Predict the structure.
Amino acid sequence: MTFFDLAVRNIKRHWLRSSLAVIGIVIGVIAIATLGIMGNSIGLMFSDMVTDVGDTLIVSPAAGVGGGKLTDRQVTDIRRAVGSNVVIPFSTTADKVSVGEKESVVMIYAIPAEDIPLLLEKESGNYPRDTGGGCMIGSQVAANSRDNGLKLGARASIGGDTLRVVGVLKERGLGFDINPDYAIIVPYSWYSNHYDEDDYDQVIVKVRDVNDLDAVKAAIEQKMNRREEVVNVMDTRGILESIFAATDAITVFLAGIGAVSLVVAGVSILNVMLMSVTERTKEIGILRSIGTRRKEVMRMFIYEALILGLVGAAIGGVLSFCAGYVTTAVFVGNPDYLFHPKSLLYILFGMAFGVFTSVASGLYPAWKAAQLNPIEALRYE
């Protein structure tokens, strides 16, 4: 009979105690994997919500300069500074919009008609033109058409002017420049006439090559802020990096909480193994008296801890997959996040950590068993 067989026999002999140790490993693996998946899913959810704006600069008027507006001349200077990169000025406000008897307050973005296709993608219909009295609505505005009456083809009244909804925008998600999903997009020419305004709130700069982002930002600041600070230039790439770093930290923190429960399970295995050494003292004495080496005695107990760890990790891995699916479906709303490679990696990490914790917890009891004096062990009652 090999030492591995002896380890298996002892586990079967004390199956209830061994089962409790396995349950501890299972719970620890589930905790690490599920919390890790949860944190990673939060990051993925936010990544999906935030539109791809890593190539974007947002130019805003500096505090107390120009009444919080950018003039047409300043926009021209920005165009000269950025060269061939796309410059899109816009203004925004909120106003009451009426469609028949239905009335609602909606955010309005005013963008030059020729620039709208450069920034926004349509789902259906057409882009508005400077002439024709048309506008576009965001995807969420269209989804709530029962409440606000705004849908493709509807005629919306804003402050006595009527605009026809000629297009619906594709869902874009949360952004750092504009959030059109819950807004109406109008040509800037209409906005200027309606609100008697010729200046802009902000300017969006789409950089063709992301590697030139810092150079373009520096060119704008050098051109506009030569004598005094006229504009502020925000780099959305830096904001995104900070946010994703924060979500990664949350994921690691959650996985760390799960690791604590697995360490507690390791203490349980340590107790089980110490009890096993005490109960098998006479058996160890017999093995040592017939020539069994200390390292072989150690190996027998390490095998026992390894088996407990492998069984617990295997069961915990399967249950972690199920728990992860339920967690992402219920709390995040998208079970597909579970199949992301990083999420699956947390399951493997939890299983590996479970086996490691189990073996590490068995090292001291194994060493203690190996150090027993054969003669004293045989006298043990």
Q: What stands out?
A: Residues 5 and 38 are 40 Å apart (CA to CA). The first helix runs from residue 3 to 13. The radius of gyration is 33 Å. Strands lie at 56-61, 86-99, 102-111, 122-125, 134-137, 155-158, 161-169, 183-187, 202-206, 231-235.
